[in-house]
Amino acid sequence: MAPPPITGREFDLTSVGTLMEASPLVTITGAGGSGKTLLARHLERQRAARHRHGSVWVELRDVVADGDVPAATASALDLTIGRGSANGVSAALRN
User: Fold this and answer.
1) What pTM was estimated for this model as a whole?
2) Whole-number Cα distances in Å, 68 to 37, 38, 51, 77, 82
3) CA quadruple 67, 70, 75, 80: dihedral positive or negative?
4) Contact by Cβ (8 Å): 59, 72
5) What is the pLDDT of residues 29-55, one digit of tens each?
6) Which sequence spans correspond to the domains of the chain?
7) What is the crossing angle of helices 68-76 and 86-94, to 10°?
8) Nearest alpha carbon to residue 58 among 47, 70, 49
């Protein structure tokens, strides 16, 4: 599903996009309600075509423990793995 339109954030989109080219991990921080998630959603959609298999949004908002991250990732990718199985996600993505 496409995120809602974003206006007035062209500089931010370009700046964070440039950081993403230089680093494999970029963290977007700021006050609640400042548009971090919307910015990230637009970046993900813009950059999906640059990757052979596209991209996927992994919602981590409700993750409360480190062990829940693999399950959230598997869910976003429609994978069936054991709860908290980082190895299961890695194996599925390897193929």
Assistant:
1) 0.65
2) 20, 23, 25, 14, 11
3) negative
4) yes
5) 889 999 999 999 898 888 877 877 777
6) 1-54, 58-95
7) 30
8) 70
Residues 26/20, Cβ–Cβ less than 8 Å: yes
pLDDT in tens, 72-95: 888 888 887 765 577 888 887 776
Residue 50 near residue 38, CB atoms below 8 Å = no
- Read off the tokens for 33: 């309600």
Q: How many CA atoms lie within 13 A of 85 on its CB side?
A: 14
Query: Which tokens is 51 given?
Result: 């990757």
User: For residue 20, what are its two tokens?
Assistant: 């993403």
